[in-house]
Every structure is written in C-alpha cells, then in structure tokens.
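Kindly go through the following sequence and its backbone structure tokens. Advise at your convenience whether the structure tokens fit the sequence:

___
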Amino acid sequence: MSVLTLGSGEIAIAGGLISCSAGLSLALHMGIGRRLAWAALRMSLQLLAVGYLLRLLFRSENGLLVGLVMVVMLARLPMRSARASLGRGAGRNSCATC
C-alpha cells in the first residue's frame, strides 16, 4: 500500500485557494469570509484527526478492531443516505421545500 504524503507546498496551495476565496468574498461583499475560514479550519482539524485515527487503527494489526470499525462505518452509511434524501443534514442553508 502506498502512502500519500502532502508536503508544505501542497498545503500552501490549498491554503492559498481558501484565502483567495475569502478575499473574493470580502471584495464582493458576500459576507461569507468568516464562515469560509471557520469551515476550512474545522475541515483541516477533522481530516487530521481522522488520519491519525486511521493510522492508529491500521497499525494496531488487530483484525477484530478493524472489522468492528468497518461494520460501524458501513452501518451508518444507510442512515446518512436516508437523511440526505429526506433533506435533513444537508446544511442550514438548504431549502426545505426544494
């Protein structure tokens, strides 16, 4: 299995793109710059946490633990799909009647 590593250059590009989006939001008076920055921070922290959790999980070499986590993740998938198709969980800016 190969590991995808992100260097500081790739992370800088991603941060630059988010900064450009926030700058455009400010320049066009869209009012979403702060929410965009907060969402980017949350996303980064969540991805970092999931990455470390998965690294620990797969390095544990405990097949039972890996299988249990896989079953839990797969069991939650239909619930998330049903919630999305009913319009719940689509975000606070979603249209309830669309």
Summary: The chain has a mean pLDDT of 79. The chain has one domain: 8-85. Residues 8-85 form one domain.
